[in-house]
């Protein structure tokens, strides 16, 4: 959209070694928002990919933030959210697993309820690409319920909508940026989960493994230790 219009929606996309998928993602997002005549911006956060990530030449409202060092997907998302100019930002993955027409339901949930500052996607019809991933998802859900008492149906869904005021609240807090979803839920005044249909997975091979599961689990425990005095929903 024209640069002089403040974006109504910011879309934050973390990127690491998936340039071709990102190009398709940007084209689909821009096609949708242009047709709806909505002011938007797309913030692509390159988490120090070994191969240079380039935006499509025809991209109208996308910009690329290149991080000088690899910080991990969660912190990359936090950096993108802090750079967002709109009052509401949507995070999604570079393979665009949930179409814009569907993730806009998260935005509408925030617009229709002033008490909510976070709307989380929950993937319908999603099947894990490997037994390790399925086991990891179950284990992470159990750990979160045990440590935080959060009732999150789909912690692994990367498509979520958040108000800028919550992003600012997190930036001013002492909460870690990883896992970013835990940080946002912990600081939110109100949140909801909305079931969204998913597209067929286009990734040829999952990079999820036992080491990534272990790192995520340790990150959750570390977050719990750091966040004990800041959690509003912890009981």
UniProtKB/TrEMBL annotation:
User: Mind telling me which Pfam families this protein's record contains?
Assistant: Glycos_transf_2
Keyword set, alphabetical order:
Cell membrane, Glycosyltransferase, Lipopolysaccharide biosynthesis, Membrane, Transferase, Transmembrane, Transmembrane helix
Q: Which residues form the Glycosyltransferase 2-like domain?
A: 10-164
Top-level taxon of origin = Bacteria
Q: Tell me, what is an example of a GO biological process annotation in this record?
A: lipopolysaccharide biosynthetic process
MF terms per GO, please? undecaprenyl-phosphate 4-deoxy-4-formamido-L-arabinose transferase activity
- TM segment ranges: 208-225
Q: Which GO terms describe its cellular component?
A: plasma membrane
InterPro entries associated with the record = Glyco_trans_2-like, Glycosyltransferase_2, Nucleotide-diphossugar_trans
What is the protein's name according to its record? Glycosyl transferase family 2
């Amino acid at each position: 959209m024209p640069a002089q219009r403040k974006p109504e929606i910011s879309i934050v996309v973390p990127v690491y070694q998936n340039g071709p998928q990102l190009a398709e993602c940007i084209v689909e997002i821009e096609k949708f928002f242009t047709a709806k005549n909505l002011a938007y911006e797309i913030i692509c956060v390159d988490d120090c990919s070994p191969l240079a990530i380039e935006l499509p030449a025809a991209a109208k409202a996308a910009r690329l933030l290149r991080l000088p060092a690899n910080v991990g997907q969660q912190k990359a998302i936090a950096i993108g959210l802090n750079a967002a100019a709109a009052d509401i930002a949507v995070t999604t993955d570079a393979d665009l697993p949930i179409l814009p027409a569907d993730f806009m339901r998260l935005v509408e949930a925030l617009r229709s309820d002033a008490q909510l500052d976070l709307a989380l996607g929950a993937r319908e019809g999603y099947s894990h690409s490997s037994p390790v991933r399925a086991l990891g998802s179950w284990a992470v859900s159990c750990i979160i319920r045990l440590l935080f008492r959060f009732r999150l149906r789909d912690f692994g869904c990367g498509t979520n909508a958040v108000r800028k005021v919550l992003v600012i609240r997190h930036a001013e807090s002492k909460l870690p940026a990883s896992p970013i979803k835990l940080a946002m839920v912990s600081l939110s005044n109100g949140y909801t989960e909305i079931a969204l249909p998913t597209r067929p997975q286009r990734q040829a091979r999952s990079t999820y493994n036992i080491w990534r599961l272990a790192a995520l689990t340790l990150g959750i425990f570390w977050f719990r230790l750091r966040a004990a005095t800041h959690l509003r929903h912890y009981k």
